[in-house]
Amino acid sequence: MLRLETKTGWWLVTHPDHAVLAGAFAERWGNERFLPPEPRANVLRGIRRHDDGWAVRDAAPQITRQGKPSAFSVELVGKYSAFEEIDLADYLAVRDRAVRLIASEDTYAAVLISMHTYSLLTEHADRSTIATTDLPLLDAFLEQQRVFQRSLREQISANQSFTPQQGSDAAILDHFRLLQATDNLSLLTCVDYLKPAHLLHPLPLRDGGYAEIQVWPMGQREFVLDPYPFAEKLIRIRFPARHVSGKVFRSPSQLRERFEMAPVEMLMVTVRATQAGDQDSRV
Length: 283
Prior knowledge:
Blueprint: E1 2-5, E2 9-13, H1 15-27, H2 40-48, H3 55-58, H4 88-103, H5 107-122, H6 135-158, H7 169-190, E3 197-198, E4 203-204, E5 210-211, E6 214-219, E7 222-226, E8 234-245, H8 252-261, E9 264-272, H9 278-282
Parallel strand pairs: 7-9
Antiparallel strand pairs: 1-2, 2-8, 3-6, 4-5, 6-7, 8-9
Helix pairs in contact: 1-2, 1-7, 2-5, 4-5, 4-6, 5-6, 5-7
């Protein structure tokens, strides 16, 4: 779950819905400067489905020790330090399920999701928030992901529907970075992030180079991207969320009851290229 605090409660967005939003950004990726993804269908499937493993857990939201909805929040942007709020074994099971669910359908999508999982738990995870007794479990999981990725890459290499370039380590790395970039833009949207940010990795350009994309908040769920990676100079995308009243909950069941009663509403994100006057607004 992803959460955004309001005056009277919380907007809650499920992980699968957040991933679909990331996929919507990826569908629009590419213009005269930025390369679109190829093989397109496989990459988009990996991005849209990278959080399928959360579906069961998000259907029954949990609470933190403070009684808040247990969810990714604005405080966690740029880091991954919420392991005191979730049982590590449960978390790893969710992450493993996300990879295994897609692997039987699409090996290319699965390797991107596994790389995303591995990155979250190595480059971004704060190991100090993980109990010392749980670290062997984490390290065993990471080794399993490395082994699984090697197996998936072998299958991709043997699959003649992919060109040698599409199955290359460089292309797979670029598409993993696109997953990370669109995932991050979706996260910034769902928590309505109000500080300057970036999309984590340099992304491939048509001229063979790479560019890092800066993100500038310009209003409620409105962002300027520079350089701009989409064909349309302004895009608006709607995504589902539920507003749950109350700041603190006595029990998970109280949160679940209010979550189930809350209607699904559609929020909107606006992303656009820079315009005259934006520079002054960003200072």
